[in-house]
Amino acid sequence: MSALKTLAAATISAAMMATANAAPVAQTETLKVEVTESQIDEIGGVIYSQIHSRRANRALRMTLLVPRTAEKKPAIVYFPGGGFTSSDYEKFIEMRFALAKAGFVVAAAEYRTVPNVFPAILEDGKSAVRFLRANAEVFGIDASKIGVLGDSAGGYLSQMVAVTGGEKAFDKGDNLNVDSSVQAAVTLYGISDLRNIGAGFDEATQKVHESPAVTEALLVNGVAFRDFPGASITSDPQKALAASPLGHIKKDLPPFMILHGSEDKLVSPVQSDQLFEALKKNGTPVTYVKVEGAGHGDLPWFQKPIIDKVVAWFENNLK
Q: Which CATH number goes with the domain that contains 117?
């Protein structure tokens, strides 16, 4: 009797295992989907500017995120950071995609970096704006509503584009028949004065920023070559100021949003403090967000609260 029970238990166990390993039973289900979001097209490799020289040409590119909606949409140009030595324009997809989901055309643009000297970087930034405005019909853009966004060196460029809207000396290249001014600007841990990027930091860091080899010095003065030994950023303060956003603050600038981390050890928060004070003094609408505990380009900047705040600000100031 005991043997029969054992055999029965083994048979039941084998049957259960066979059932567990069997293919799932075919099934159907119905899912009703409410359409609440538009489709977004990514358009990469768009050449927005051709830089011509006697011996070489260079194409500058952008990647666009375009919501597929019938109405004209405001546009935002994103300029990436990179210490003035690189412009990896397809980064920060979290921010760019959120803006596109909110109904903005978002163009991420590369630009010339060191060893190219100022104003090449600004000429490229303004050229990107002109390209979007000149091709507004192609990309479904409301040409009267273009903003800029950048982080670190890209924040510097977004500031420069915004504060030099009426300064035609920096408009070079194509589409010169259209305006390069913008209607809103956001800067994340950006640079407002090239002369004091390390303000308030320790003595060793201050020494670095006195070097003729530091990138802001190379941006303004160029590299050492032949009989030029190089020059520090403070060797010609007026020249450095003319290459800085604080050197172009004036009345009737577009609204600004400034964000900076309290623990930034690369670009001093003083950069954003002084920009805020200068804009406020001149009557520019400006919002300043100090992000507690955030460093320079670290993970807090990729979190939803930061992204949502930037999206909401553009919705209020550019739409």
A: 3.40.50.1820
In a domain, residue 299? The reply is yes
Beta-strand pair 40-52/57-67 = antiparallel
SS3 of 25, please? coil
Torsion of CA 103, 158, 256, 245, to 10 degrees: -170
CA dihedral 205, 210, 211, 212 (to 10 degrees): 150
HSE value, Cβ hemisphere, 13 Å, CA-based, for 89: 25
Residue 60: name the closest of 139, 125, 12, 4 by CA.
125
Amino acid in the structure at residue 201: F
- Kindly state the DSSP code that residue 181 receives in the 8-state scheme: -
pTM above 0.85, yes or no: yes
**Chain segment 21-58, per-residue pLDDT in tens:** 666 789 999 999 999 888 999 999 999 999 987 777 89
d(CA 185, CA 125): 13
Per-residue pLDDT of 236-278, as tens digits, reads: 999 999 999 999 999 999 999 999 999 999 999 999 999 999 9
Q: Are 75 and 108 in contact (CB under 8 A)?
A: no
Count of domains in the chain?
A: 1
Helical ranges in 144-303 per DSSP H: 153-163, 203-210, 215-221, 237-242, 270-281
Is residue 7, in this structure, part of any structural domain at all? no
pLDDT in tens, 295-316: 999 999 999 999 999 999 999 9
